[in-house]
Amino acid sequence: MKRVVVGMSGGVDSSVAAYLLKEQGYDVVSLFMQNWHDKVGTLEGACTWEEDMEMAQLSSKRLGIPFHYVDLSEEYRHRVVDYMFSEYERGRTPNPDVLCNREIKFDAFLLKALELGADMVATGHYCRRDTVEVGGQPMQRLLAGSDPNKDQSYFLCQVNQHQLSQALFPIGHLLKPDVRRIAREQNLPTAVRKDSQGICFVGKVDLPVFLQQKLKSRQGNVVEVFPDYFDRTGQRQTDDLSIEQLAAPYRYTPDCGKIIGQHIGAQFYTIGQRKGLNIGGHKQPLFIIATDIESNTIYVGEGETPGLYRRALFIRQDEIHYIRPDQTLQVGDRRRYLVRIRYRQPLQQAELIRREEGLYILFDQAQRGISAGQFAAWYDGEELIGSGVINR
Predict the structure, then answer these.
(1) Which of 18, 150, 310, 355 makes the best surface tag, with the fewest CB within 10 Å?
(2) Is pLDDT at 125 greater than 70 in this prediction?
């Protein structure tokens, strides 16, 4: 009998995943990870890790499976949170949930599970995995979850073949209401518990307060850029521009607009952000269209300003990752895929263009809020093929 160690989070998804595996005849063991202790910057009312662990224990007891606990907070701090701080310090916008899956759930956690005699590990992610044969060798495919409203494949866009080969996603074929129904039918204590939100294992945070643990506040100017600036400087995204020009961020200088307020530090803000500026006097909302760490300046535009949209992005060659290495694009190759640049974004039609310096993604339609540091993930139908860190 194969032993499967389930990452039991204290939520309904992982508890139902454990139930389904037990029903399928696996030797199921639950393992709860404590990945964060510090409460600085976390919002009041967010569930604590103690509550999560209690729910994981109660679910394990209800299912009649062994419960174990592991503290991975040091690994999480060094491999996820420190990376997150360093990216914000550079003026980039990281996705800690993607890093958490690559570095913790399918690495540090996997190693602990193997110590418990695991043959496989399982999580409550809404995604699917299957195996195909390529050149006589097994190849793992990562597929979108069957529930279009809950598909979490994007968060696993940085895992590799070895990690996938040891992973099970028992609820990936289910809709969320079905998961809730199963939990109620089995009298699981998580049946009515709300889904967790916020940063993976940290919870809901006041991001500036959270980041101020390591990044110092520094007052700077908020500069409003008006729509005619893009015409005057020839920076409109038009079809006659090269792929390099389309992927280049807009150029701003402190004198390109009007100073309309102050902020607490450019590193605390991200492109496309609307909340947190506290500047009034405009008919439409203000959106951040750029941040400049060196000059400590934030650039904003009113409403759906041209500065929010770009047709292309660039990924450096050393930050391209393929879940399906047999699908790797070689220099000079061009191939069409479906692409998303953030979780829950509808898949977008695009062409991937491989150059010596890296990978360009050219979208059919201009994309809103392309941010350096985020992950772009590309799909062939429902299969996630690869991903990369947006460089610009």
Answers:
(1) 355
(2) yes
Number of alpha helices (DSSP H) and beta strands (DSSP E) in the chain: 11, 18
Q: With 50 as the cut, is the pLDDT of residue 45 above it? A: no
How many angstroms separate the CA atoms of 7 and 104, rounded? 11
- 363 beta partners: 350
For residue 342, what is the domain's CATH number? 2.40.30.10
Token pair listed for 354: 């491989």
**Average pLDDT in the chain:** 90
Instruction: Give, to the nearest 10 degrees, the angle between helix 12-23 and helix 176-185.
Output: 70
pLDDT at 207: 67
Q: How many CB atoms lie within 10 A of CB 161?
A: 16
71-95 pLDDT, tens digit per residue, is 998 888 889 888 888 898 898 988 8
CATH for 261: 2.30.30.280
Task: Give the end of a domain, one of 291, 308, 325.
Answer: 308
Cβ proximity of 290 and 250 under 8 Å: yes
- Count Cα neighbours of 333 within 13 Å in the Cβ-side half-sphere: 11
Active-site amino acid positions: 100, 200
Residue-number span of the structural domain to which 148 is assigned: 3-210
Domain boundary among 210, 229, 251: 210
Number of domains in the chain: 3
Same structural domain for residues 82 and 40?
yes
Q: Enter the tokens of residue 323.
A: 């879940």
SS3 of residue 317 by DSSP: helix
DSSP annotation string for 243-305: HHHHHSPPP--TTSSEEEEEES-GGG--TT--TT------SS-EEEEEEETTTTEEEEEESS-
Report the CATH number at residue 145: 3.40.50.620
For the ranges 35-49, 210-224, 352-366, the lowest mean pLDDT is seen at 35-49
pLDDT at 13 over 80: yes
User: By C-alpha distance, which of 321, 339, 317, 375 is closest to 155?
Assistant: 375
